UniProtKB/TrEMBL annotation:
This is A1pp-domain-containing protein. The chain holds residues 24 to 227 of 290 of the full protein. Coiled coil: none annotated. Residues 19-201 form the Macro domain.
């Protein structure tokens, strides 16, 4: 080191500090983002699709992802054996700029049993993050699962999504997930996410 101060030459050698437990350098607030746009354009490690139990494609974001990924995605999805509601499976991303697609199956919103819908929606986020971490995906972008065709009210879905992500990141002591991006598309979701994000991830 050319910049050593002359007096430090007389000091005894520095003691090597003991290994420290992992501490994520970023605060929780720095590990989440919110954008409005087309999830198929994002070059993150994994994007999360709002799929159905067949995993064989459909409309909405599912259709957009299959169109952009190309027919190889459907070919792989045929081998996955479907997926339970409230859970997720992972595939390659083919022509998409991301590395993996996580296919989460949200609930059709049941107005008579909102707690059941909530548990299933929460399961989508938790399973997706667990799969991402296991697969070495450190940045994950979520579509607003169930808030389209499946009828989940945006203002109810947003806090469920954010609480699940927050709790996962708090538990993620090794910092496997570095960034979670919430991707909104329609104005109702933009408004709901803008309102709730600072409550769940307050600026430090
Ligand atoms: N990028 C990001 N978000 C999008 C995009 C996009 N390109 N397109 C739509 N969204 P939906 P669901 C938003 O209906 O409610 C399919 O047919 C959209 O505004 O795609 O979970 C599946 O195959 C909404 O906020 O999914 C299932 O059968 C969110 O994505 C069923 O729909 C989810 O809306 C699943 O219904």
């Amino acid at each position: 080191n050319k910049l050593v101060h002359p007096t430090s030459a007389k000091l005894p050698p520095a003691v090597t500090p003991p290994p420290q437990p992992f501490q994520p350098s970023k605060s929780l607030n720095d590990r989440v983002g919110l954008i409005r746009g087309d999830i198929t354009t994002l070059a993150v490690d994994a994007i999360v699709n709002a799929a159905n139990r067949s995993l064989l494609g459909g409309g909405g974001v599912d259709g957009a992802i299959h169109r952009a990924a190309g027919p190889e995605l459907l070919r792989e999805c045929r081998t996955l054996g479907g997926c339970e509601t409230g859970s997720a499976k992972i595939s390659g991303a083919y022509r998409l700029p991301c590395r993996k697609v996580i296919h989460a199956v949200g609930p059709v919103y049941d107005v008579l049993r909102p707690e059941t819908s909530e548990a299933l929606l929460r399961g989508c986020y938790t399973s997706s993050l667990r799969l991402a971490a296991e697969s070495g995906c450190r940045s994950v972008a979520f579509s607003a699962i169930s808030t389209g065709v499946y009828g989940y009210p945006s203002r109810e879905a947003a806090p469920v999504a954010m609480r699940a992500v927050r709790e996962f990141l708090e538990e993620d002591k090794e910092g496997k997930i570095e960034l979670v991006v919430f991707v909104t598309f329609e104005k109702k979701d933009v408004d709901a996410y803008n309102d709730f994000l600072p409550m769940f991830f307050p600026p430090e």
